[in-house]
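thread: overnight batch results

M.L. [08:02]
morning all. the overnight job finished for the chain we discussed friday. pasting input first so we're all looking at the same thing
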Amino acid sequence: MQKFQIITLLSLASLAGCGEYGGGSAVVPEVTVLPADLSGGEVVAAETGDGGSQPATESGGSGPGTLTGRVVMVGDYPQLKPLFAQGADIKDKEVCAAVEVPNEQLVVGTDNGVQNVFVFMRKAPKGSPKLESAEPLYFDQKNCRFLPRAMIVPVGATLKVLSGDAVAHNTHTNPARNNGVSSLVPANDREGTLELVYKTAENPFAVTCDFHSWMKAYHLPLDHPYGAVTDENGRFEIKDIPSGTHDFVVWHESATGNFVERKLKVTIKPGQNELEIPYASSKLAL
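M.L. [08:03]
and the structure it wrote out:
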C-alpha cells in the first residue's frame, strides 16, 4: 500500500476564559498526518468552532474509523531526577524507599514519546455508546506509588482501590464535578475495601495520599468510549469513532494549564487514521 505524509501548518488559536475545560490559550501546532493508505482515511487538525461533532463533509464513506497516534515531545526538556533514592530517609522508608522512587511528572520514552497523556473527545456525538465496565476496575499502590499513574474510569463503574504495601495509605480524590473521597486504605488490602464510583464525566483530576505527600495519580471519568491514555512510547488508540469531524482534548499533568491541546479538531474517515501530536517543551510547567 502506498503511504504518504501531509504536513499541515495551522495558526494560533487564542482561547480565553474558563469554559468547560478551563481557561488559558492553546497553540494548534504543525501536525503530521500519516494515513494507512490512499483509501484509508485522513486526520486533519485545525481550529475548533463550537466544540461539537459534525458529520463527514468529504467523500470516503460513513463507517467508523480507528484513530492511532503518538504524543511526541519537541524541543529540549529536563531529565527529571528520582524523587528519592533507594534507602532514603522518608516516611515509612522500609516500604516507600525499598526501591528508587521515580519522578513521574514527565515520562519520555522511545523517540520522545510522552507517557500518561490523556487524548479524549470533548463531547461524543448523539447516539454514541456508553463507556461501561461490567467487571470492577482496579487502582493499586506499591512502594508508595499509585498504579497506574493515569487511567480512564467509566462513569458508573466500580473502581476498587488496592494496596500491596505493608503500611496504610489514604486515597484522596480531588474532582471538580464528582463527590470527593478521602479514605483510609489498610495495609496489604488486596480485596479493594475502598470502592470509588464517579457519577459524571469531567476533566482529569488528581488523586493523592495524605500520608505520603509525593504520591499522585490522575483519573478521567468518561461516559463514552472515545478516549485513551498514551503508553510508554507515547502511543494511543481509539477505536470505532464515527466518521466526521470531532473535537478532542490532549491533557497532560505537566503542560501549562494541563493542556497540550485544549481543542484539537480531527476529521475521521473510515479505516485507519494516524496522527502525531507535537508537545512543545515550551508548554511544560514543571
